[in-house]
Amino acid sequence: MEIDFIIEMDKAILPIEVKSGSNKAVSLSKLLASSDIPRGLEFAESSSGISDRVLTLPLFMAAFL
Fold this sequence. Notes:
By secondary structure, this protein is mainly β. Helix content is 12%, strand content 38%. Strands 1-2-3-5-4 form a five-stranded mixed beta sheet, covered by helices on one side. The termini are far apart.
């Protein structure tokens, strides 16, 4: 399992996975499924959206984190 970053936001853990290309955030999904972490964040070249408990945003938005 590979998670790129883990930050604290609003007193909760927020795992972040950064993807180049069209690959899915498999590690992030596995982590969320096997823990009580409520949500995760994915930065990718694909379009933004919410799937299950993963918020996907464009890569350039990482600068605003």
